[in-house]
Amino acid sequence: MTKSIDFTQLLVRRLKNRDVTALDYLYDHYSEALYGIIFRTLQHKEIAEETLHDVFIKIWEQIDQYDESKGTIFTWMYRIARNRAIDARRSKDFKTADKSDDITGFVDMFESTPSQEDYIGLSKVISEIGKMCKKLIQLNFFMGYSHAEIAENEEMPLGTVKTRLRNCLKDIKTKLSNDFE
Amino acid sequence: MNKEQAMNEGFLAAYLTGELSKEELQELEQLIAEDKEVKREYLSLQKVLELLSFQHGFEVSDNLKQRVMQNPQVMKYLKPEESTRVIVWRFLVAASVSLAMVAGMTAYFYWAEFKETDQRLAELTARNIELAEGFQQVNHELNGMRNSLAVLVSPEFSRIILQGTENAEDAKTVIYWNAQREELYLNSANLAALPQHQQYQLWALIDGKPVDAGVFDAAAGSFQIMKNIAAADAFAVTVEQTGGAESPTLSTMQVYGEVKNS
Predict the structure, then answer these.
(1) In the listed set A51, A69, A96, which residue is the last one of a domain according to the structure?
(2) Which of A102, A123, B164, B199 is a good FRET partner for B54, with 20 to 30 A between their CA atoms?
(3) DSSP designation for B260
(4) ipTM of this complex prediction, to 2 decimal places
């Protein structure tokens, strides 16, 4: 298979060549997933959309810093989106929009209907991982709360938050294991 | 940080969100680069996060994409003659099409390659079955010949030549008979082919009384196993209706030979 090219590799190469059409594709493919993270972190439509806009411009401007050996393109974009959203939540504008950055308004997102067809049975796996796992994953990965913030809010030692998060992800991975490797 | 810590203490999950200290980050990145197991674990955690994110995305307002694509940071990479609004979008549509085509071609390439491989596999499998069947056949024939040869060279078999009668002067049939083991073989090579409703029948004659020794066809070069016969003074072959008769139609006798008493 020497002739084969990984599609995401091709996409990254084109982004690095400043190919606008690649950004077009990137937006179509990833905007909803990234927006889910940003919106859950901010709980405010206008600010979340403004943040998503900034995230895509940042991805476009900083694509040369993306190093394929250090993770997938999604992981790289995910970090940018999460950090941008956290920054926005801490900003003055956000506070004047009558929002706070305390852990409030936790709504279990896994209770809502998935935005995509669930071909691999992810919803079923999620329903099996336990309430605490679901909450920790959402707070940390989808709502932009740090380990320390979660530890305080959940009255749990910091180390426990970290290892539990890791175990929760691993649990999902194991339950989905047919789709890995 | 050692490997066990990296794998079990949540460093990989914290790496996903970017919540590592500078030292932790360096140590973990080194471990990922050096250890396949850590790398694999990191890769599967990334995949879980991606799956969850994709499954729980949110719809974005339609006009946001336009704002991203028309941001000066993006626009400046479009060629100048394409930078009027209408042309930009036409270009982007065309570009999307071209990207889709790349994707399509990639998919087609894999599909074609898969199909070709699949077909080759089917061909090879068929060929393999053919060879195996051929081998089986040859093996079967070889075993048959081995048995025939064993009969031919065995001192326990007497060879009796049945000579043609008036009905078939040129005919000749050879039988091999082991009276002790009651085994009887016949080579029908020299007999004429018969119409479909007729078969040859071999008779063993004991004290002038005929005993059925089996029916056969005049297959070229074949060495046929006949019925078990313990005693005989002579052998004869007649032409009978397919399936054989209870008693020989003597008028059709083709070959006849007496057993030499040794």
Answers:
(1) A96
(2) A102
(3) P
(4) 0.91
Question: Which residue in chain B is spatially nearest to A39 when comparing CA positions?
Answer: B58
Q: Residue B58 and residue A39: Cβ atoms within 8 Å?
A: yes
Strand partners, B223: B187
Please name every residue paired with B160 in a beta bridge, in sequence order, or none if there are none.
B175
Q: List all residues 6 or more positions away from B225 whose beta carbon is below 8 Å from its beta carbon.
A: B183, B184, B185
Inter-chain touch A23–B33, beta carbons under 8 Å: no
Domain termination residue (choose one: A48, A69, A96): A96
pLDDT tens digit sequence for A106-130: 778 888 777 777 777 788 888 888 8
Range of the domain at A172: 109-179
Averaged pLDDT, B123-145: 77
Question: Is the same domain home to A128 and A63?
Answer: no
User: Measuring CA to CA, which residue among A130, A161, A169, A138 is closest to residue B48?
Assistant: A169
Question: Is this structure's pTM higher than 0.90?
Answer: no
Q: Provide Rg for chain A, Cα atoms.
A: 18
Per residue in B27-61, pLDDT tens? 999 999 999 999 999 998 999 999 999 999 999 99
Query: B149-204, pLDDT tens digit by residue?
Result: 777 777 888 889 898 888 888 888 888 898 888 888 888 767 888 888 999 999 99
* B107 has a chain A CB within 8 A of its CB: no
What's the domain count of chain A? 2
A49 and A122 fall within a common domain: no
Nearest to B57 among A4, A33, A141 (CB): A33
Q: Does A85 touch chain B (CB under 8 A)?
A: no
B8 — alpha (psi -120 to 50), left (phi > 0) or beta?
alpha
Kindly state whether residues A61 and A115 are assigned to the same domain.
Answer: no
**Which CATH number fits the domain that encloses residue A14?**
1.10.1740.10
Q: Do B56 and A21 touch (CB under 8 A)?
A: no
Same-domain status, A16 and A56: yes
A78 and A118 in a single domain? The answer is no
